Amino acid sequence: MKQEKWLKTHTKSLIGKTVAITGATGGIGTQLCHIFAKLDANLILINRNLERSNKLKLELEKLYPNINIEIYKTDLEKIEDVKTTAEALRHKQIDILILNAGAYKIKRKTTSLGFDNLFQINFISQYFLVKKLIKNLKQSEIKKVVAVGSIAHEYSSINLSDIDFSSVKSDSKTYGNAKRFLMFSLFELLKKQNIDFAVAHPGITPTNITQNYSKTINAIIKYPMKAIFMKPEKACISIIEGVFEAQDYGTWVGPKHFNIWGAPKVSKLKTFSEAESKQIYDIAEKIYTKIKTETKEI
Ligand SMILES: NC(=O)c1ccc[n+]([C@@H]2O[C@H](COP(=O)([O-])OP(=O)(O)OC[C@H]3O[C@@H](n4cnc5c(N)ncnc54)[C@H](OP(=O)(O)O)[C@@H]3O)[C@@H](O)[C@H]2O)c1
């Protein structure tokens, strides 16, 4: 799959449109920003690191002088940050929202909200952001949200006595559980809100997501990862497909060969059930209400 050729036939100009994206400074996020800039979109970068964000902004402005880029410093582990960003974005035009930020192998801790930080970064904060930006999206003719999912959501199903998997030691299971919450809750929320939604899986691609593996593991996997799997510039194509193609409830888009290699293909999520999805949505809404109450939001 030649990226340039694929982009020509599967995308269209986004001139005058604004894409808001979380985790833009990461391996996949940076590649996505380059594609959106090439398609003439303006960008809202929702990132935790200002230095890396400014570097990316300058890099894009140099290549695309007409682009408008705004940065909103947001640590998704801190709900106050997310609230401040959502408030600052209240009157901004947002046509496409990409929920790309993700954390996997990090030091686990309980956040101020009382949840496992993996659950909060990958799910709660980004669900909260969507809830707050629904009004912005509804004003757009595009109205699209794309959540970056992961095959890891298949590793486990919800456990009502341990919603955030805080007692689960395996980071991959806790990460997968959070992705499952993000994907399934948004199927319900955005269907109700009449906003286009896609879940996209990039496959496996070497990025910083594995940076906290031990030095030995990193040394062992570094070269095989680069040799075997698609590079981030190819892996991000599934997310772009998610932006431009309409997608049905309970489906996702990912690389066509074993969800790891190749051009994007939409398929039914074999893990999906409407009953579980609705259950997850109810939990997501309860968490959202809890945040509003605890942070004294009216
Ligand atoms: N790489 C893969 O094989 C793979 C497979 C399946 C799904 N995914 C998903 O793809 C998405 C992009 O990941 P990636 O592979 O590009 O990894 P990455 O290079 O580590 O990028 C992750 C992004 O999330 C941001 N992030 C992490 N914790 C955050 C926090 N507390 N607050 C705000 N932002 C935070 C990172 O910010 P910093 O730049 O500041 O670190 C970075 O921009 C993630 O959702 C990931 O779960 C990746």
Name of the CATH architecture: 3-Layer(aba) Sandwich
Tell me the overall shape: globular
Radius of gyration: 18 Å
Number of strands: 8
- The assigned structural class equals alpha/beta
- CATH homologous group name: NAD(P)-binding Rossmann-like Domain
Biggest sheet details = 6 strands, parallel
| CATH level 1 name | Alpha Beta
- In helices, the fraction of residues equals 40-55%
SSE string, helix = H, strand = E? HEHEHEHEHEHEHHHEEH
Q: How many angstroms separate the termini?
A: 50 Å
Q: List ligands, each type once.
A: NADP nicotinamide-adenine-dinucleotide phosphate
Spatially, the strands of the biggest sheet line up as 3-2-1-4-5-6
Describe this structure in words.
The chain is α/β, with parallel strands linked by helices and 298 residues long. It has one domain: NAD(P)-binding Rossmann-like Domain (Rossmann fold, 3-Layer(aba) Sandwich). 46% of the residues lie in helices and 15% in strands. The protein contains ten helices and eight strands. The strands form two sheets. It has a six-stranded parallel sheet, sandwiched between helices. A two-stranded antiparallel ribbon has the order 7-8. Helix 6 packs across helix 10. The N and C termini lie far apart (50 Å). The model has no long low-confidence stretch (mean pLDDT 94). Bound molecules: NADP nicotinamide-adenine-dinucleotide phosphate.
